[in-house]
Design a protein that fits this description.
about 400 residues, alpha/beta, glycoprotein, signal, Ig-like domain-containing protein, Ig-like_dom
Length: about 400
């Protein structure tokens, strides 16, 4: 009995010690086996100074802190913090060593602030960190090595951060990450290489992004499907005919890029009786169907099509050869390419100039000279004959 009384007497002051120093605006209490200081929306502009160093959980949600300077917590004696909640604290800056000396910190909530950037070494001394939330911050991109080596990080939330780009090495040091939330950002496409370092990943949330479901997104869709990672319903925002459709319900050929088309020579001059060839370069994925049209009629006669893959993006050359052209072959030819991404066309104009006029003039001049010579010869013969007749008559009259 005496031992029990002594134990109670000893425990009482110990309990009073860490709660007695609870600063105004905070409530210090036991919760879930932790020493907690709850200070929500209490008007703090800096980290409270009069809290016990034994505090393990600090809730500062709704305070207008503005910035976290280097050693913001350890400088006021809070070195045993395990969980820190800084949601909606108007933070625009977190200095690189803000969480320095917090060696047993396992959770940080920095959501609903105004952070546009943060130093890649911000959490470099927090190797015990298991959960990090940066949701609802205007972070438009994640740079290479954006996060330091965090061997115990299991959950990372980046929801509604205005993210448009993630470098393929942004998550390079997060090999133990199991849950990643990237929903409600501005992604239209992401490379599969972004997620390759995350070989322990079990859950990936990509929904509510404006995904453009064209050929460039197919690699990501296939990777997530093979890795069984896309655990939430992810919908297409573009193109229009796929809007609202789930990735998982689309075939590979539905992820199409509208073809690109170009012609080397838009104006071709051919020689009558000779062959002429038009060339049309087309790229597209999946490979487009290519054909040629003259006056709304598909050209089949003397048609030769050659397709050649130049790059992984499937570049093709289509050549149309017309044999021994005539004047009827002149006109506007259209090279048309189509796949599920759309249809495009390019025009080639064929001109067949008339035969040189000089040749006809020379032929007509030669004909005129020949006719004149014959005429003169006939006239000369007639004159000569008349002269002979006249001479004979004269000779006859003179004869006795």
């Amino acid at each position: 009995m005496l031992f029990a009384c002594l134990l109670v007497t000893h425990a009482g002051p110990a309990h009073a010690d860490w709660t007695a120093t609870c600063t105004a605006g905070c409530t210090c209490k036991w919760a879930d086996g932790k020493k907690v200081a709850e200070c929500p929306s209490a008007g703090f502009t800096t980290i409270p100074e009069n809290l016990s160093s034994e505090i393990q959980v600090l809730d500062l949600r709704g305070n207008q802190l503005g910035a976290l300077v280097n050693r913001a917590f350890s400088s006021v004696g809070l070195i045993n913090l395990q969980r820190i909640f800084l949601r909606n604290c108007s933070l625009t800056l977190v200095e690189k060593d803000a969480f320095h000396d917090l060696n047993i910190m396992v959770e940080v909530d920095l959501s609903h602030n105004q952070l546009q950037r943060f130093n890649p070494e911000t959490f470099s001394t927090n190797e015990k960190l298991r959960s990090l939330s940066l949701s609802h911050n205007p972070l438009d991109k994640l740079e290479a090595h954006q996060f330091p080596a965090l061997p115990n990080l299991r959950s990372l939330e980046l929801v509604k951060c205005q993210l448009e780009m993630v470098d393929k090495k942004a998550f390079m040091h997060l090999s133990k990450l199991e849950s990643l939330k990237l929903s409600a950002n501005r992604f239209t496409n992401l490379k599969p290489e972004v997620f390759l370092p995350l070989n322990k990943l079990k859950s990936l949330d990509l929904q509510d992004n404006p995904w453009n479901c064209d050929c460039r997104l197919l690699a990501l869709r296939d990777y997530l499907s093979e890795a069984n990672l896309n655990s939430t319903l992810t919908l297409c925002a573009e193109p229009e005919h796929l809007k609202g459709k789930s990735w998982s319900r689309l075939a590979a050929e539905d992820f199409a890029c509208k073809p690109l088309i170009d012609v080397n020579e838009p104006h071709v001059e051919g020689r009558l009786g000779f062959d002429v060839t038009f060339s049309c370069r087309v790229s597209g994925n999946p490979p487009p169907t290519i054909w040629w049209v003259l006056q709304n009629r598909q050209v089949k006669n003397h048609f030769y099509l050659h397709q050649q893959q130049q790059q992984p993006e499937l570049e093709h050359w289509s050549n149309l050869t017309l044999r021994r052209i005539s004047e009827q072959d002149a006109g506007q030819y259209r090279c048309i390419a189509r796949n599920k991404g759309g249809q495009v066309e390019a025009n080639v104009s064929l001109q067949t100039p008339p035969a040189p006029v000089t040749i006809l003039i020379e032929e007509e001049t030669g004909l005129m000279s020949y006719t004149t010579a014959i005429t003169l010869a006939i006239v000369g013969a007639c004159v000569l004959l008349a002269g002979l007749v006249f001479l004979i008559i004269c000779l006859v009259r003179r004869a006795p």
